[in-house]
Specification:
By secondary structure, this protein is an all-alpha fold. It is built from 55 helices and two strands. The radius of gyration is 32 Å and the shape is globular.
């Protein structure tokens, strides 16, 4: 770990953040680091971010980073906000960018706010409404004019709030239309936003509309109306000029902020012109708030005085000039180009990222090639060009042009610092093609004295070709017995690659033991991302290290590199070590795909120190190792089920036993039947099943096998003679239906070529109000409009919370079988995503239309699934069903459900049947 200037110790920080389950202590450590360490401390947080176990800690770090003004921090937050697979973290990054002083971050938010289809649209508007740097919602009236209210219904409250925050009274006429009793009846949230906005930018004309709303018997409405009216009356009475002088001359920040909240709501253009006169006379110092207000209300006046504003640059922050200039640039693009001819060179690098035009890009590219007409440092030009890429202002064609020019520049410039910056910039472009890889390879072949910039560029790119080139360099360095520090550097860059960039670390076998142990930290980090065939001895060594950070990394690396001795050490850690080590050990054991790790977890389940949360984590995570016999697990679990009273744990136990039974060989095989002198014929059973389900032959093999087992019981009852428990037959029915849905509906929903499916599911979770798993609505069945089928006391709240959280984090696409782990889960999936439904008077279409199935039928099917899962769990808990007659009703319910599911998955079955027909 590279120490910062503040000498912050990585291991001490990690110990503080990871070794306690006290959220407030972790938060203190994070904020303490940012406060004392500044940008260096923030970068330490960025480095440990991927390894953090506590999700709450990740949110705390993202929020804390908003106070650090550093380009790398902004880049980190933007990268997180782009990850739509983990939308909750992306939202937090969006809010953090809004709180920051980062100009690039604010421009990035503006780009989002101009795209209504973006999943973070509302978050971007909210963030921009609570900051001043943007002061620019000119695009919102255009959106309102070009889209119907129906198309904007989900975003309208956010749009209205943003218009109120703009401070422009000209926008009040958009808000006025929503200050009605009718709007309150159809969308209360929209009226709330309109009342607050009216209080900020409305005049006396707004009072009549507000008075009508005050008659509504709603205490919230009445309180908001009263506040808004008071705010409007207050603005009519105050002397704006005196208030403006008090603000500009005030030295008390708290007092200024109070005055500022009023100044933002004043409508008088002459007020801001008066300020300009005071500034010109040097009676008061220029202020960004006032400058931007002048620009907002009187753009031409502000343009005429641009020379004055630039002359005051020593008193005006870059943010003020950028905000001011961007306002004009939207109305007059040529203004931005002309502006660059007037500003001092020292401001160009800071201003340019937020003032992109194609003309400017072309000029800067010419400057980089030496053909431009504005002298400036090459590094400043490169920074500007890369910044435009950072805020996604460049087209693919522009990126290609820029990369070509950067390669030429790196090859031809005599200045070593400029060459290094050009190389790093190529990695920041995150655009990989053979030109870049060829350039880096040829440069490395010349064996430069300082190759780290090339390694950094490859690491930033994180493409397969870039990763392979880094690995090749490591192998060459090991073979040529290069300086150990160079090997360590390459290992460090490999350890910092994005998750998924590297899955096999067998290249580590090329290193000597001395190299491995001298670079233990990056090697262990690599093993948290990838497997290494010779890793076990190395990991075992560091599992017992006295160095806390090494031990923690070794535990994390064990999830990809498990062995029986490692599993036993982790068992001791789960039951005896400190909280952080114990939790990470449990995580590694749970994610392992080895039976011996699962056997250790079985011992963990029986340990007295294991609470409900840990039990659920274990039971839901284990996926049986293929072709391994887990029969001893089934016996142990059956005993546990008999004594389990918690319904959630019972549900997880039953689903776990089902997964084990799917993995094991069926009890009713041909050999067993022969021992009973029963002449059974699979073809006869299949023919009977085809009679019940015409599409049976296109069912998955596992579903067919499960149904054969159940039918064998009914066709050959001697197999289960006398006092044999028949409740396990329920496993086969539930398994058959579950696999059927996973095979035919799962790919459409979770693995479809349509990349928007996950985003659509996440957006719907937010619309339902299910985005906070700890504060779900009291009656979700009412929101989902299925109360007739799911009484409130029967609704599976815990399962709903789990599914929604896994959808929001994207986990459902990677671990579908762990999230959708039974018929109850499938019932909720059908209710939320496969029906036309109205939310806040907005009609939402299903993610996939199901021909011939009405919304009411889907509710009915979902209720039957929930009922069958309850019967399954109840039977598992009671443990005994001795009579075949007990199963007849369950068999009938199951057969009806299968027929319904065939209807639901009709298109998928038709496709499979066609493939079978063509194959003969």
């Amino acid at each position: 770990m590279r120490k910062s200037k503040k000498q912050i110790k990585y291991e001490d920080l990690l110990h503080i953040i990871e070794s306690t389950d006290d959220q407030s202590l972790r938060e203190q450590a994070i904020y303490g680091l940012v406060t004392r360490g500044g940008a260096d401390g923030a970068r330490v947080l960025i480095e440990i971010f991927p390894l953090l176990m506590w999700r709450e800690t990740k949110f705390q770090i993202i929020e804390a980073l908003s106070s650090v003004d550093d380009f790398r921090i902004t880049e980190f937050l933007i990268n997180i906000s782009r990850n739509e697979i983990d939308l909750p973290l992306a939202r937090e990054a969006c809010f953090s960018l809004g709180k920051s002083q980062s100009l690039s971050g604010h421009m990035y938010l503006i780009n989002i706010a101009k795209n209504m289809g973006h999943p973070l649209y509302r978050e971007a508007l909210f963030s921009l409404s609570n900051t001043f740097l943007h002061s620019d919602f000119n695009f919102l009236p255009k959106i309102l004019q070009t889209h119907s209210a129906e198309n904007l219904s989900a975003q309208m409250p956010s749009i209205i709030s943003a218009l109120g925050a703009s401070g422009n009274s000209k926008n009040f006429h958009f808000i006025k239309d929503f200050l009605t009793v009718n709007t309150h009846e159809h969308c209360p949230e929209l009226v709330f936003a309109a009342i607050i906005a009216a209080g900020k930018i409305g005049s006396l004309e707004a009072l009549s509309s507000l008075d009508k709303l005050a008659k509504i018997h709603d205490i919230i409405i009445r309180d908001l109306v009263e506040i808004a009216k008071n705010r409007i009356h207050y603005r009519q009475k105050i002397d704006g000029v005196d208030l403006l002088k008090s603000f500009c001359l005030g030295k008390n920040n708290a007092q200024q902020q109070s005055i500022l909240s009023t100044l933002r709501e004043l409508r008088s253009n002459t007020l801001w012109n008066h300020f300009l006169k005071l500034s010109l006379a040097n009676e008061i110092e220029p202020n960004k708030e006032a400058l931007v207000r002048i620009a907002f209300f009187d753009a031409q006046h502000a343009k005429d005085d641009l020379k004055f504003m630039l002359s005051k640059c020593q008193h005006i922050k870059i943010a003020e000039i950028v905000t001011l200039t961007r306002l004009h640039g939207q109305e007059d693009p040529s203004f931005v180009n002309n502006f660059f001819m007037k500003i001092p060179d020292k401001f160009m690098d800071s201003l340019a990222p937020l003032l992109f035009t194609q003309d400017l890009f072309d000029k800067f590219l010419d400057n980089l090639s030496g053909n431009g007409d504005k002298p400036s440092g090459d590094i400043d030009i490169i920074n500007t060009l890369v910044s435009w890429r950072h805020i996604e202002a460049l087209s693919v064609g522009n990126i290609q042009k820029l990369q070509t020019e950067l390669i030429k520049h790196a090859q031809n410039t005599p200045l070593e610092a400029t060459k290094e910056r050009a190389i790093r910039a190529m990695g920041q472009l995150k655009y990989s093609d053979h030109h870049f890889i060829d350039f880096v390879r040829k440069t490395l072949n010349k064996r430069p004295n300082h190759p780290n910039n090339l390694y950094l560029a490859l690491k930033q790119l994180s493409s397969p070709d870039a990763t392979k080139l880094l690995v090749d360099e490591l192998i060459i360095a090991a073979m040529e017995k290069k300086d150990p520090s160079q090997i360590k550097d390459i290992l460090w860059y490999l350890s910092q690659l994005e998750d998924g960039s590297i899955t096999n670390a067998d290249f580590l076998s090329n290193l000597s033991l001395e190299n491995l142990h001298s670079s233990a930290e990056p090697v262990l980090k690599i093993l948290t991302l990838a497997t290494w065939v010779n890793s076990c001895e190395f990991i075992e060594y560091y599992l017992t290290s006295k160095d806390y950070s090494f031990k923690l990394l070794a535990v994390a690396a064990a999830k990809n590199n498990m062995s029986p001795p490692i599993a036993e050490v982790l068992f001791d850690y789960v039951t005896r070590e400190n909280f952080a080590i114990a939790e990470r050990s449990l995580d590694s054991l749970s994610k392992s795909h080895k039976k011996y790790a699962h056997q250790v977890l079985l011992k963990v389940l029986d340990h007295k120190a294991i609470d409900k949360r840990r039990k659920l984590k274990i039971l839901r995570a284990i996926e049986p190792e293929p072709n391994k016999n887990y029969s001893e697990f089934g016996q142990t679990i059956s005993k546990s089920i008999q004594h389990e009273e918690d319904e959630d744990i019972l549900d997880a136990f039953v689903n776990f036993r089902d997964r084990i039974n799917i993995n094991n060989k069926p009890l009713t095989n041909e050999r067993n039947l022969k021992l009973l002198n029963i002449e059974a014929n699979d073809n006869d059973i299949d023919l009977d099943l085809v009679a019940s389900f015409p599409s049976y032959m296109s069912f998955p093999e596992t579903t067919q096998s499960a149904l054969r087992n159940t039918e064998t019981v009914f066709k050959y009852p001697k197999i289960f003679h006398n006092r044999v428990d028949k409740s396990t037959i329920l496993v086969e029915y539930v398994k058959a239906i579950d696999i059927l849905l996973h095979t035919h509906l799962g790919p459409v929903l979770f693995y479809s070529d349509n990349q928007n499916n996950l985003t659509k599911m996440q957006s719907r979770i937010y619309l339902f109000g299910f985005d906070n798993p700890r504060q779900l609505p009291k009656n979700p069945a009412r929101i989902l409009q299925c109360e007739e089928y799911f009484p409130q006391n029967k609704f599976p709240m815990f399962k709903l919370s789990q599914i929604c959280q896994d959808i929001l984090t994207g986990r459902i696409c990677n671990q579908q079988f762990q999230t959708v782990d039974g018929l109850r889960a499938w019932a909720l999936i059908l209710l939320m995503f496969f029906r036309q439904i109205e939310v806040n008077h907005r009609r939402i279409e299903p993610l996939m239309k199901l021909p011939g199935i009405s919304p009411r039928q889907i509710c009915f099917i979902a209720a039957k699934m929930n009922e069958l899962q309850s019967l399954r769990n109840d039977a598992a808990h009671r443990g005994m069903m001795l009579e075949i007659s007990d199963l007849i009703a369950i068999r009938e319910k199951s057969f009806f459900l299968i027929k319904d599911i065939v209807k639901i998955c009709q298109k998928s079955f038709e496709g499979v049947s066609e493939k079978i027909r063509k194959a003969g």
